[in-house]
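**User:**
My hope is that you can spare some time for a protein that puzzles me. This is the protein in question:
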Amino acid sequence: MNNHEIDYKLYGDDMQFVEIELDPQETVVAEAGSLMMMEDGITMETIFGDGSSSSNASGLMGKLMGAGKRMLTGESLFMTTFTNVGSGKKHVSFASPYPGKIIPMDLSQYKGKIICQKDAFLAAAKGVSVGIEFQRKLGAGFFGGEGFIMQKLEGDGLAFVHAGGTIYRKSLQNGEVLKVDTGCLVAMTSDVDYNIEMVPGVKTALFGGEGLFFATLRGPGTVWVQSLPFSRLASRVFAAAPQTPGGGSKGEGSITGGLFNLLGGK
């Protein structure tokens, strides 16, 4: 085992958080801003990259390259480590940033690698490598939006990813094909053959209410799909908010206006 062996417990249903139990000198690495709470005796440190043994071995340039790759996925240059420096077991908790589920994944059960959506990673045991996975056909990737640049989690420890709405886990048989909206794809095992394809028929793309691209997944392998991507939720909320001639939200009689007034707005 190259990764720290951590224990965990999930709390909640639609707004979950994960509580991780750290033995002395055990470390968990997480996205900046995902911390919910932690007990005394745990120290925080901001680092370049993911703190895995592979990035440490490559020196400063390796760390800078890893941080630069994370910028391509829209994530922060930095990650945060949480280490138990006390004498007993300590607990640290991380929360999902929007309604949905947290999925624990033991990478040793998935051949040491999981490919996930670029904003899905939440936290992992120290030693798990967080990198990027490029779609092979760059032309489709640049126009495929969310389906192009994905993250890859490598190692033999625990990792936690989050997704919106309800999570559906599907095992694909050899040669079985599943077509998924690029935003709804959460994660997949490394043996799944995937591609980003344009929706056939311009009328379908323009008037059908769907995106121009979808992910075509071919088995064997395991796929995780989310029912409510955050981008879809945000676009619906924005579209439903009344607009003023100047482009702002009108407010009167709207949910957003009520919240604004409740918080002391004028």
Observations:
- The chain is about 20% helix and 40% strand.
- The chain has one domain: 7-228.
- Confidence is low (pLDDT under 50) at residues 70-74, 138-147.
- Residues 7-228 form a domain with the Double-stranded beta-helix fold (CATH 3.60.160.10).
